[in-house]
Amino acid sequence: MPETSEAHEEEGSPLKKWDRRRIMRWIVMPLAAVLAVAALVMGVLNLTILRPARVVSASAGTSTNYVVLDAGVANLVSSEVSVTATIKESAEQRSQARSGDDNSAQRMMCVVAGSTTDVDAWMAAQAVAYTRVTGLSSWTSLSTQNVAKTGTAAKDQVQLSDSDLWALSNCAERTATLRITGAQPYEKVIAYSPSGVSSVRVNWNRTNMPNTAIPWFSWAAVFIVVAVLAMTWLSGEDPFGAQRRKRKREEQLAALEARGIDTGMIPSLDEPYVPYQKKSKSGITHRTRTNGLFGGLFGKKETTPEDSTQKDTPKPTVVDPSSVNLVASTGAGATDSAWSPSVINRTDSQAQSEHTGTLTGQELLEYLARLAVEGRSDTAEDTAEDTAEEMSEESGKIDTSEKDDAHE
Q1: Which regions are flagged for Basic and acidic residues bias (predicted)?
Q2: 302 phi, psi to nearest 5 deg
Q3: Alpha carbons 140 and 60: distance in angstroms, whole number
Q4: Edge-to-edge strand order for the sheet containing 80-87?
């Protein structure tokens, strides 16, 4: 009975060790569910309240007679754009103005569009200070820069509205609007009024609306899948099959032992996995990296007393006899073999000189003496051959003379 109560208390104790099932179902699944709901809410908001506007409108105030939109501003948001400019005029001037009076030319506003080359040439000929519109500082305001006056104005200039440089143009009293369909990145826009330009407004009409809700719905789907997996598969007893493979392995080993097969050479599951080391073209593998010249870059190698003993002990030099002519390299005679005393009883200086490719004085004398002996032996052989040929010729002559005498 006490054991049962202790077990019951251990099960109900809040200090019980957290296992994978509790972590997945009490922490991971609720967190993934909350994130999924939040992503769904943001997706719905981006479809309704936070949906991007179809028309983007931005404006800026100016105080110069000329306002120039830089190249790339006209098609910054969309290729469908309209530029509206308003003259600088007070309320009193507006109330006194009459259509068609003498000051109507001063109240004229012109907006034109042309290539970058034509606009730059026109502004250089005017030699006046003007305002540049460089882009968007926010979704509702334009960023501007003031350009100072440079150079001298050209003489006999034509009016802006009368020039044939512009692809599109529009002039009106007080306010003028130029609509551009298919704006190009190399186009610039000029707004001009003799009274001065007070404000410029650019409206872009979006033809392809960006869908900002899709990323939120995608994240919501991912979090829902994680929540479902954390509640079902990941919280199971063996989700990745490690225990199942271990049991199968143990059953196979037991079957082998029952058949009398030694299983001591079979690696167990607890041994570390050593992947196959494929040699590279340079012959460098992970093992040579860790133990070679650059071993310090990949981890310090642990040294043992055996390694230090082997390092102190000089290793013998291994020579491949199949690739070396031992008789010729030792300087032995033609009749000596690789196991003759002249080859075996060489000194260290001789071996070292052969290894380095140089000859000592003693070796040079032995070589010259051996060369002289070989020359004398060759001369003696030639003399013997000549003598034998002469004797054979004389014997032939004697035999011929004897036959002639006998015939007579």
Answers
A1: 299-314, 394-408
A2: -80, 130
A3: 9
A4: 55-61, 197-205, 80-87, 175-181
CA 21 to CA 184: how far, in whole Å? 60
Which of 239-248, 309-318, 371-380 comes out lowest in average pLDDT? 309-318
Relative to beta strand 108-115, strand 55-61 is unpaired
The span from the CA of 191 to the CA of 178, in Å, is: 10
Cα distance between residue 198 and residue 141, in whole Å = 15
List Cβ neighbours of 358 (8 Å cut-off, separation of 6 or more): none
pLDDT, tens digit (0-9, with 9 covering 90-100), for 97-134: 666 666 778 888 999 999 999 999 999 999 899 999 99
Backbone angles phi, psi at 321, to 5 degrees: -70, -20
What's the CA gap between 315 and 305, in Å, rounded? 17
Distances (CA, A) of 58 to 54, 76, 84, 146, 363: 13, 12, 11, 18, 99
Q: Report the alpha-carbon distance of residue 234 to residue 197 in Å, rounded.
A: 68
